[in-house]
Here is the input.
Amino acid sequence: MAQTHLILGASRGIGYEFTSQLLARGHNVIATQRAATATGSKLAALQSQYPGGQLAILECDVSSEASILGFVARVREALHRETRTRAVLDVVVLNAGVLVYPNRMSELSFANFSHHLTTNTIGPLLAAQHLLKLSQPEEAAHKPVDIKTLVFISSDSGSTTNFRSFEDGFGAYAASKAALNQGLRHLAAEVHRKHPNPPVVLALHPGEVTTDMAANVEVDWEVKGVIGPEESIECMLKVIEEKGAGGADEGGRVSMAKDGLEEETGAATFWTWDGRRYPW
Here is the structure.
């Protein structure tokens, strides 16, 4: 059955690959890019391959709260045409992110640090916050929108218990991803307490992916296990299907019980692209 997915940050890299693979599987996709027009973009070219309205392209710049609010309003409008009583976003993937290398803490400028925090932490969390508000619209004329699974693209650089000290030049990036991880965990707990049908919240590490964002980064250590966007997304889609809402291991509860672990109901969980639980 066709699902509806929202990919925030889909103009290139893994966001674009998410969009491409989901469309190929017959799903409907709402994809975002920062530019005001899609003309001439990779997404526009992809949209031309699916002329039946399977792909909708919206503008969203996560560094601007006004842009986020406008985007959320357009999502509501796009889903208002659904025939069901409540509209559904089966999966929301918050993929927007930036890496300006190097970003050493001992050399970091205010602007560089702010750029990483705004794009990697604040923007995605605020976008998720406002999207979740669509489930409880203020006006009766607006159809409620239920989000089943909420996925944040994180990084192993953001783990605080598995600190990667050899990653020279990743200070601001790692701090922004660690802040994202803590923020999404709090968001998951708060939403679980407040919402009657809260989404499953996942953080995913996509692996060491060869994307445009990493193309100009040359490091002094060996990067192990490099994979392409196609492999990363194919594997992450399996993880989302298994760990997301309605999956065989929804929220990781089944595997957690097998491992003898205990975690608060509704807590977010952190996974690698190949389905391994990762330490926060």
The radius of gyration is 18 Å. The first helix runs from residue 13 to 24.
